[in-house]
Structures are given as C-alpha cells and as structure tokens.
Design goal:
By secondary structure, this protein is an all-alpha fold. It has a domain at 27-79. Helix content is 76%, strand content 0%. It is built from three helices and no strands. The protein has helices at 7-21, 29-35, 41-79. The longest helix has 39 residues, at 41-79. The chain starts with 6 loop residues before the first helix and ends with a helix. 0% of the residues are buried.
Length: 80
C-alpha cells in the first residue's frame, strides 16, 4: 500500500481533522465577563471598547511589522 503522493497532504489532512474535532473556545473570556457585569453600564461599555481596540491592535501587529521590514529592505536596495 502506497502512502500519500506528497508528505504535506498527510499533514494537511491531520490538521483539518484536528480543527474539525476540537471544541469551540471562547475568544476572549474577559470580554464576556465585562459585558455581563451588573455594574455601571457606561463603565462596562468603555471596558468592552477598550478590549475591542486592544484585540484589533494585536491583530494588526504582524502586518505592521511586515510592512516595516519590507520598507527597510526596499530602502536599503534603492541606496545601492
């Protein structure tokens, strides 16, 4: 019996199975607690907005780093 044609096919299949079998996790438990707080609604809203902005910042960090490194490489090659 032959194995898969490419080694990556087996890894891809195993990865897809792992993703399909894993239970859904809460993305941000602190956001859930903040939104369900029984305290001041204005404070709860401001905290939720702060969490939202921090998540967006963390999601954009890799793209900003990639853009910065690309800019430095382009600038270095143009100087030569």
């Amino acid at each position: 019996m032959k194995g898969p044609g490419r080694p990556g096919t087996l890894l891809l299949t195993l990865g897809l199975l792992l993703v399909a079998v894993c239970p859904v996790a809460w993305a941000c438990p602190m956001c859930k607690e903040t939104l369900s707080a029984q305290g001041d609604p204005a404070l709860s809203s401001r905290l939720a907005e702060g969490y939202n902005r921090s998540i967006l910042l963390l999601m954009s960090a890799p793209y900003l780093l990639f853009a910065g490194v690309t800019y430095l490489i382009v600038r270095a090659t143009r100087r030569k």
